Amino acid sequence: MARVLGKSALVTGAASGIGRATAILLAREGASVAVTDVDVERGQAVAEELGASAFFAELDVRDEQRWTAVIAEVGERFGGLDILVNNAGIIGFGPGFGTQDPETCSLRDWRAVHEVNLDGVFLGCQHGIRAMRQRGGSIVNISSRSGIVGIPFAVAYASSKAAIRNHSKSVALYCASKGYPIRCNSVHPAAIMTPMWEPLLGSGPGREERIAAFVKDTPLKRFGTAEEVASAVLFLASDESAYTTGIELSIDGGVLAGSAASPGS
Ligand code: NAD
């Protein structure tokens, strides 16, 4: 069954993790896919894996000129854009970043995280609307459980993800009010095993214990997979969700259903 047959898609941050799994699933379900990322080598490898129905384009989501150029390239190659997945994001841990709590997080780090996570989604939505306003389409923004609850030691990340949650609803309402056939929804993963977790999990003997600790309050008691998030994105990208706009879809092993909260993204 090809659930997005004949549609064209652009996925940001598609070289790794959730973006990669999403690009692969959209292609498998019949879409032509623009695989975009700042990581040229790994992005190109994903596009090559997908074959003739895909191409790679370098896109730093903070770069407005690149948005213009890449969307134009999608138009030239695929005849237009139907699906935009604003997935690229950083958590703000690891090399180059300092502490991320509200007392000591630097303004530089705060801005750097918002620039990728929030400005990137803002630009994506703006360019996506312009590309889709006549032909219609679906915008899926990857927020997080952290956009719904507070995260004391990743405040820039949590703030940026909360803003994505709200901006998605504004975009949905704006498009509806203008009569543009564009839907916009947000997806809220939690504890999905991707490279984003590596700085937190580390290696060595304590790794398994740390994994267990992170999911001990998750009702399903495990990390989710990138493919499980990609399935949700596919639903929102396809016409199966034609009456769905402005929603937030949690893929979180049940964690938001109760009051227990474990740290992490
Ligand atoms: P990941 O680190 O595996 O992949 C992120 C990708 O984004 C990488 O390929 C990276 O090169 C790319 N990227 C980083 N900065 C970029 C930029 N400026 N422009 C374009 N691309 C850029 O992470 P992931 O876990 O697959 O995360 C994907 C999305 O899912 C992120 O928005 C993340 O916040 C969100 N998310 C992940 C989890 C989780 O548990 N993994 C939970 C909630 C939300």
Mean pLDDT: 96
| Total beta strands | 7
Helix content: 40-55%
Residue ranges: pLDDT <50 for 5 or more in a row? none
β-strand amount: 5-15%
* Major sheet: 7 strands, parallel
Distinct compounds present: nicotinamide-adenine-dinucleotide
- Would you list the SSEs in sequence order as H and E? EHEHEHEHEHEHHHE
Q: Rough shape?
A: globular
Number of DSSP helical runs: 8
Structural class: alpha/beta
Radius of gyration: 18 Å
| Largest beta sheet: strand ordering | 3-2-1-4-5-6-7
Q: Span between N and C termini?
A: 33 Å
Structure commentary:
There is one protein chain. A 7-stranded parallel β-sheet has the order 3-2-1-4-5-6-7, with helices on both faces. The protein has 265 residues and is α/β, with parallel strands linked by helices. It is globular. It starts with 7 loop residues before the first strand and ends in a 14-residue tail after the last strand. The chain contains 8 helices and 7 strands. Helix 3 packs parallel to helix 4. Strand 4, helix 4 and strand 5 form a beta-alpha-beta unit. Nicotinamide-adenine-dinucleotide binds next to helix 1.
Question: What is the strand and helix layout of this fold?
Answer:
Blueprint: E1 8-11, H1 17-28, E2 32-37, H2 40-50, E3 54-58, H3 64-78, E4 83-86, H4 107-132, E5 137-142, H5 155-178, E6 182-189, H6 198-201, H7 207-214, H8 226-237, E7 248-251
Parallel strand pairs: 1-2, 1-4, 2-3, 4-5, 5-6, 6-7
This protein binds nicotinamide-adenine-dinucleotide (NAD).
Nicotinamide-adenine-dinucleotide (NAD) binds at residues 12-13, 15-19, 37-39, 59-62, 87-90, 116, 142, 144, 189-192, 194-196, 265.
